[in-house]
């Protein structure tokens, strides 16, 4: 257990372990070292020792939790799991932020970015009492300590990172790379909140974290809180060095100055020295933050601020075993997980473990009943000032419902179904504009440089794009930039999604629109947030938060100029993998269905709502009244497009998505012109999970059979990959007759109809499929099939000659001569 400081003070030494640089533009070292009184230093160090003892105990012990008896192997867990390496640094930072809270009465929360550092956060959360309040069985006594140790990394217990079960957490440590963007999301529109976020040096190597450093250019000092990042350099990942710990000091300082931060360095390993340095540095950072905010708020002048950050360099596995078998542990990758893995078999390691645990002197920290001694309890804040009890870390406590205007006010006029065209997303932009105006401190819109492209630009009428960086004269003409804007745009889906999640997790509401081809960038972020929500749903003390709402547009079927790389509807397959308790997928085919769907999603909570709707001009199918009924049901028969009234259908034609619905309707018209006696039932699907009996939105088998029949062919024209529909509906009675068409990875620079043809979702392929599958049509349909194939060829030839689709096919509308009277 190392307690020595090297005393090095070379600013360019890559192995500098005990320097103290207050880095400004000159990177000078000029901090006074008298912040703490001897009593404060003693209590801070004792509280930190208690944290380290608990962290080590969680990994190793199942009994004899305060070492009141000689340690025996029967007191150990059989399987040793957990991550020690980052834990001492995390609890060190947490302890010092507590001092900042108690000294200056600030409002703060804590985000732990390192992937597996839960012991370093669990320990102070338990010691300040919140954990026992949430989980009374983990009480503040010997039995409670035993329960805490036993449940850590243990079946039926809790994981080794900061999961939703941990009070005070809004960030899942296993996400690795999103902590900083989550922190900024939490700080937006929270003017008195300071978000301390610890960035692990392994985590700092990820792409999402690298882009998130630029979030400082979007923090408005007038209306937002502050983010105080602590880059924790402990030198190693699992068994490799970390890049930022091995570059020269000046290069590291220049990197963060280049990102627009003012870095403060706190470096060393001697606890007493490091406590003083950390306290002094935190006081300086807080003073700068409050000064910058006060100046901006006094003038009511938003401006870009060079915010402070801390680079903390401490040994990996700080205060743990120094070496074993001639190999270094503390300060090396061997401290990452379990520093002494052989305690069950090695007498040497077993004795080292007891020596290590007793080095924290638990008898000085806890009374005989297992409670932290009275003098140390004052180190932690009280009540909601505790970071683990702060309402911002349980956003449902603060959530206010959005004030949403009547979505019907934005309706598209539809006198007759499928006889007019309109841009689907434009009216939604107007609705979002008015939501923003009515909720100026509670709602934000996020998009990666695509808000105008996605036809949502009406929102700029009430709120521009936030921009605090440099302005140029040409920005005034159409740039829609403002230092006070509430639309957040940056060409990083990772950062935007992180901002949105942090914003929603702390009690607010948001809307994110992106291109379908690029939504895959946030696959892992969606996965982790879905897992977070699924666990949070089981925790009664976590109150519901607003849903994450994702509009996926610029879709696969309208990528005629972008080509093959932009043709990928597979995000829906990712969504279906996650818990049905939190996932929702909607494919509204027109304006009015989109408005009804968006209204529902914006009012929902604890879900991830995926809305797929293209931004281009499309056929409008339903009046607002009909759209509301249709979306409420989630799917249904369109009587005006069907010919099976009061009869058994010969075939069920299904459209799901805007272009697939258009092509399915056009196929229906072709068939009814050729075969007037053919009984076709036309169904449109908006809520994709209606198809799955395993989802809470799923239709009952009886309702499904009634709609889709139990023995008739179903031609299902789908927006995405066709196998997804089979995956959802495989348990249905008539699944053997379900024939799905969708995107098949065929395409390039194609016109919309040509792309449909090469993937066989076009009207002609669908009509041919019906002829092949309906008994009685195979023989008499031969001429029709040939005519349809000839028309496909004509369409492709026209597209290749003129670069656009045949106008009479592209501008096709439903003729109501087809509609039964």
Automatic annotation (TrEMBL):
<dbReference type="InterPro" id="IPR005593">
    <property type="entry name" value="Xul5P/Fru6P_PKetolase"/>
</dbReference>
<protein>
    <recommendedName>
        <fullName>Probable phosphoketolase</fullName>
        <ecNumber>4.1.2.-</ecNumber>
    </recommendedName>
</protein>
<comment type="similarity">
    <text>Belongs to the XFP family.</text>
</comment>
<dbReference type="InterPro" id="IPR009014">
    <property type="entry name" value="Transketo_C/PFOR_II"/>
</dbReference>
<feature type="region of interest" description="Disordered">
    <location>
        <begin position="1"/>
        <end position="36"/>
    </location>
</feature>
<feature type="domain" description="Xylulose 5-phosphate/Fructose 6-phosphate phosphoketolase N-terminal">
    <location>
        <begin position="36"/>
        <end position="397"/>
    </location>
</feature>
<keyword id="KW-0786">Thiamine pyrophosphate</keyword>
<dbReference type="Pfam" id="PF03894">
    <property type="entry name" value="XFP"/>
</dbReference>
<dbReference type="GO" id="GO:0016832">
    <property type="term" value="F:aldehyde-lyase activity"/>
</dbReference>
<dbReference type="InterPro" id="IPR029061">
    <property type="entry name" value="THDP-binding"/>
</dbReference>
<dbReference type="Pfam" id="PF09364">
    <property type="entry name" value="XFP_N"/>
</dbReference>
<dbReference type="InterPro" id="IPR018969">
    <property type="entry name" value="Xul5P/Fru6P_PKetolase_C"/>
</dbReference>
<dbReference type="GO" id="GO:0005975">
    <property type="term" value="P:carbohydrate metabolic process"/>
</dbReference>
<dbReference type="InterPro" id="IPR018970">
    <property type="entry name" value="Xul5P/Fru6P_PKetolase_N"/>
</dbReference>
<dbReference type="Pfam" id="PF09363">
    <property type="entry name" value="XFP_C"/>
</dbReference>
<feature type="domain" description="Xylulose 5-phosphate/Fructose 6-phosphate phosphoketolase C-terminal">
    <location>
        <begin position="615"/>
        <end position="814"/>
    </location>
</feature>
<dbReference type="InterPro" id="IPR019789">
    <property type="entry name" value="Xul5P/Fru6P_PKetolase_ThDP_BS"/>
</dbReference>
<dbReference type="InterPro" id="IPR023962">
    <property type="entry name" value="Phosphoketolase"/>
</dbReference>
<keyword id="KW-0456">Lyase</keyword>
<dbReference type="InterPro" id="IPR019790">
    <property type="entry name" value="Xul5P/Fru6P_PKetolase_CS"/>
</dbReference>
<feature type="compositionally biased region" description="Low complexity">
    <location>
        <begin position="1"/>
        <end position="14"/>
    </location>
</feature>
